[in-house]
Amino acid sequence: MDNQTSGILLIAKTKTAQIELGKQFNNQSIQKKYSTIVIGEVLNNSIINSPIENKPSETSFEIAQVIKSLTYRELSYLQVSPKTGRTHQIRIHMASIGHPILGDKLYGNKETIHQGKGLFLCASEIKLLHPKTFKPLVLKIQIPNKFTSLLAREKRRWNTYNV
Fold first, then answer.
1. How many structural domains compose the chain?
2. In sequence order, what DSSP letters do the residues of 58-96 get, joined into one string?
3. Which CATH number characterizes residue 93's domain?
4. Is 104 a catalytic residue?
Protein backbone atom coordinates (compact mmCIF):
# COMPACT_ATOMS: atom_id res chain seq x y z
CA MET A 1 0.00 0.00 0.00
CA ASP A 2 1.16 3.50 -0.86
CA ASN A 3 2.47 5.35 2.21
CA GLN A 4 -0.01 8.19 1.60
CA THR A 5 -2.98 5.80 1.49
CA SER A 6 -4.83 5.20 4.74
CA GLY A 7 -6.89 2.21 5.82
CA ILE A 8 -6.57 -1.54 6.15
CA LEU A 9 -3.09 -3.00 6.07
CA LEU A 10 -2.70 -6.79 5.93
CA ILE A 11 0.26 -8.22 7.86
CA ALA A 12 1.11 -11.92 8.17
CA LYS A 13 2.07 -13.07 11.68
CA THR A 14 3.78 -16.28 10.56
CA LYS A 15 5.93 -17.38 7.64
CA THR A 16 3.24 -19.92 6.65
CA ALA A 17 0.59 -17.19 6.57
CA GLN A 18 2.92 -14.94 4.57
CA ILE A 19 3.43 -17.65 1.95
CA GLU A 20 -0.31 -18.41 1.70
CA LEU A 21 -1.28 -14.74 1.47
CA GLY A 22 1.43 -14.25 -1.14
CA LYS A 23 -0.15 -17.03 -3.23
CA GLN A 24 -3.56 -15.38 -2.94
CA PHE A 25 -2.12 -12.02 -4.04
CA ASN A 26 -0.33 -13.68 -6.98
CA ASN A 27 -3.53 -15.44 -8.23
CA GLN A 28 -5.45 -12.19 -7.71
CA SER A 29 -7.97 -13.95 -5.47
CA ILE A 30 -7.72 -11.25 -2.81
CA GLN A 31 -10.29 -8.53 -3.53
CA LYS A 32 -9.55 -5.00 -2.38
CA LYS A 33 -11.86 -2.02 -2.28
CA TYR A 34 -10.78 1.57 -1.78
CA SER A 35 -12.74 4.71 -1.03
CA THR A 36 -11.59 7.88 -2.72
CA ILE A 37 -12.65 11.42 -3.55
CA VAL A 38 -11.70 12.66 -7.01
CA ILE A 39 -11.88 16.03 -8.68
CA GLY A 40 -14.80 16.55 -11.06
CA GLU A 41 -18.06 14.82 -11.82
CA VAL A 42 -17.61 11.16 -12.74
CA LEU A 43 -20.58 10.31 -14.95
CA ASN A 44 -20.54 6.49 -15.18
CA ASN A 45 -19.31 3.44 -13.31
CA SER A 46 -16.48 2.05 -15.38
CA ILE A 47 -13.42 -0.16 -15.78
CA ILE A 48 -10.04 1.29 -16.72
CA ASN A 49 -7.79 -1.12 -18.63
CA SER A 50 -4.70 0.90 -19.41
CA PRO A 51 -1.24 -0.59 -18.89
CA ILE A 52 1.12 0.76 -16.26
CA GLU A 53 4.83 0.44 -17.06
CA ASN A 54 3.89 -1.81 -19.99
CA LYS A 55 2.08 -4.27 -17.69
CA PRO A 56 -1.65 -5.03 -17.90
CA SER A 57 -3.61 -3.12 -15.25
CA GLU A 58 -7.30 -3.06 -14.42
CA THR A 59 -9.26 -0.83 -12.06
CA SER A 60 -13.05 -0.69 -11.75
CA PHE A 61 -15.01 1.96 -9.88
CA GLU A 62 -18.55 2.77 -8.80
CA ILE A 63 -19.90 6.22 -8.06
CA ALA A 64 -21.14 6.54 -4.49
CA GLN A 65 -21.87 10.29 -4.49
CA VAL A 66 -21.25 13.43 -6.54
CA ILE A 67 -21.47 16.84 -4.91
CA LYS A 68 -21.15 20.42 -6.08
CA SER A 69 -18.17 22.31 -4.69
CA LEU A 70 -17.26 25.99 -4.71
CA THR A 71 -13.56 25.15 -4.78
CA TYR A 72 -13.54 22.22 -7.22
CA ARG A 73 -16.89 22.66 -9.10
CA GLU A 74 -17.70 18.97 -8.43
CA LEU A 75 -16.25 16.19 -6.31
CA SER A 76 -17.01 12.50 -6.79
CA TYR A 77 -16.84 9.97 -3.98
CA LEU A 78 -16.01 6.56 -5.48
CA GLN A 79 -15.62 2.92 -4.47
CA VAL A 80 -12.62 1.64 -6.42
CA SER A 81 -11.48 -1.97 -6.93
CA PRO A 82 -8.09 -2.68 -8.46
CA LYS A 83 -7.91 -6.12 -10.07
CA THR A 84 -4.16 -5.90 -10.54
CA GLY A 85 -1.74 -4.42 -8.03
CA ARG A 86 0.57 -2.02 -9.82
CA THR A 87 2.37 0.72 -7.90
CA HIS A 88 0.13 3.81 -7.65
CA GLN A 89 -2.41 2.05 -9.90
CA ILE A 90 -5.55 3.80 -8.64
CA ARG A 91 -3.83 7.18 -8.63
CA ILE A 92 -2.51 6.74 -12.18
CA HIS A 93 -5.78 5.36 -13.57
CA MET A 94 -7.99 8.07 -12.05
CA ALA A 95 -5.66 10.84 -13.27
CA SER A 96 -5.60 9.23 -16.74
CA ILE A 97 -9.36 9.76 -17.15
CA GLY A 98 -9.19 13.37 -15.98
CA HIS A 99 -10.29 12.76 -12.38
CA PRO A 100 -7.21 12.97 -10.16
CA ILE A 101 -7.57 12.04 -6.51
CA LEU A 102 -8.00 14.97 -4.15
CA GLY A 103 -4.68 15.63 -2.42
CA ASP A 104 -2.57 13.81 -5.03
CA LYS A 105 0.66 15.79 -5.38
CA LEU A 106 2.27 13.25 -7.72
CA TYR A 107 -0.41 12.60 -10.38
CA GLY A 108 -2.62 15.62 -9.88
CA ASN A 109 -1.94 19.32 -10.27
CA LYS A 110 -2.01 22.24 -7.86
CA GLU A 111 -5.85 22.23 -8.05
CA THR A 112 -5.88 18.74 -6.48
CA ILE A 113 -3.98 19.75 -3.35
CA HIS A 114 -6.14 20.17 -0.28
CA GLN A 115 -3.88 21.85 2.25
CA GLY A 116 -2.96 19.74 5.26
CA LYS A 117 -5.40 16.90 4.55
CA GLY A 118 -3.23 14.51 2.53
CA LEU A 119 -4.40 12.03 -0.08
CA PHE A 120 -8.11 11.14 -0.15
CA LEU A 121 -7.57 7.41 -0.78
CA CYS A 122 -8.41 4.77 1.82
CA ALA A 123 -8.19 0.96 1.71
CA SER A 124 -11.66 0.29 3.12
CA GLU A 125 -12.32 -3.41 2.47
CA ILE A 126 -10.41 -6.61 1.76
CA LYS A 127 -11.79 -10.09 1.01
CA LEU A 128 -9.55 -13.13 1.26
CA LEU A 129 -9.34 -16.69 2.48
CA HIS A 130 -7.95 -17.06 5.98
CA PRO A 131 -4.38 -18.34 5.48
CA LYS A 132 -4.82 -21.21 7.96
CA THR A 133 -8.52 -22.18 7.93
CA PHE A 134 -9.20 -21.11 4.29
CA LYS A 135 -12.58 -19.73 5.37
CA PRO A 136 -13.73 -16.54 3.60
CA LEU A 137 -12.73 -13.46 5.55
CA VAL A 138 -13.96 -9.89 4.98
CA LEU A 139 -12.22 -6.99 6.72
CA LYS A 140 -13.99 -3.66 6.46
CA ILE A 141 -13.63 -0.22 8.03
CA GLN A 142 -15.62 3.02 7.98
CA ILE A 143 -14.27 5.72 5.71
CA PRO A 144 -12.11 8.28 7.53
CA ASN A 145 -13.81 11.25 9.13
CA LYS A 146 -11.88 13.59 6.80
CA PHE A 147 -13.90 12.15 3.87
CA THR A 148 -17.34 12.66 5.43
CA SER A 149 -16.36 16.06 6.85
CA LEU A 150 -15.09 17.32 3.51
CA LEU A 151 -18.15 16.14 1.58
CA ALA A 152 -20.54 17.65 4.14
CA ARG A 153 -18.61 20.94 4.28
CA GLU A 154 -18.39 21.31 0.48
CA LYS A 155 -22.11 20.55 0.11
CA ARG A 156 -23.00 23.03 2.87
CA ARG A 157 -20.78 25.75 1.34
CA TRP A 158 -22.32 25.18 -2.10
CA ASN A 159 -25.84 25.47 -0.70
CA THR A 160 -24.98 28.57 1.34
CA TYR A 161 -23.06 30.60 -1.25
CA ASN A 162 -24.62 29.46 -4.52
CA VAL A 163 -28.23 30.43 -3.97
1. 1
2. -EEEEEEEEEEETTTEEEEEEEEEESS--TTHHHHHHHH
3. 3.30.2350.10
4. no
